[in-house]
Amino acid sequence: MPGGLCVHVVTRGNARATVFHSDDDYAIFMQLVSAAQGRVRLELLAWCLMPNHLHLVMRPLADGDLARFMHWLLTTHVQRHRVRHGTTGRVWQGRYKAFPIQADAHFLTVLRYVERNPVRAGLVDCALEWRWSSARERQAASGEHGLLAPSPVPLPSPWLDWVDKPLTGAELANVRTSIRRDRPLGDSAWTRELANRLNLLGTLKPRGRPRVTNRPALFSDGGSGSRS
Question: Of 138, 135, 96, nearest to 113 (Cα)?
């Protein structure tokens, strides 16, 4: 992933199994995020840890930084997790997903999607109640973890009121499609230009068999078929 782009990263527990079983599990992971930033400097713009998956919104400073950051973070977490819980085997489900975000209203939609995740899942009534997301740090004068970089896009105020407002169906569909297909999220011109530059044009094509536009009619105008 090139440096300078805002990126939404998602990874899930293997077979959607629970990864974070307690507050200590969440806290240990955030400590590793801090340690990873000490090894690979990038801007952490939002995050949310959920019981069986996580979201990170970041802006790497140089080409390849995102891959180096995520490799160290997830590899180290797996090692710590196995020791802590006495398990073997996979913790995370394959490679993480990552898609670039245009730094405009699309970026704000992703931030809102990420920080509202626990509300949408029914874990809390408002984003501020969930301890393990950037919503709480963004609200505080000095963050609990101190990891959050300034947003590259001005945030609506009051921010948390905006986060607690449900996303529209179209907004949800756009973000979820980007997650599912690793598709850049932005306006059509930006998305196509970036997909072309990053060799991601395949993510823009509809899935499934192509529609047949010249299918012959079941009955001719003078046929014997009846209509009901």
Answer: 135
Q: Identify the H or E element spanning 113.
A: helix 105-115
The pLDDT tens digits of the residues spanning 90-100 come to 999 988 999 99
| Residues in a beta bridge with 54 | 11, 49
Q: Which pair of tokens denotes residue 224?
A: 């014997």
- Give me the domains of the chain, ranges plus CATH numbers: 6-186 (3.30.70.1290)
pTM of the model: 0.85
Amino acid at 199: N
- Determine which helix (DSSP H) or strand (DSSP E) holds 99, and give its type and residue range: strand 97-101
d(CA 196, CA 125): 41
Cβ–Cβ under 8 Å, residues 95 and 46? no
- Measure the CA–CA gap between 79 and 150, rounded to whole angstroms: 31
Q: Measured between alpha carbons, how far is 56 from 147 in angstroms, rounded to an integer?
A: 12
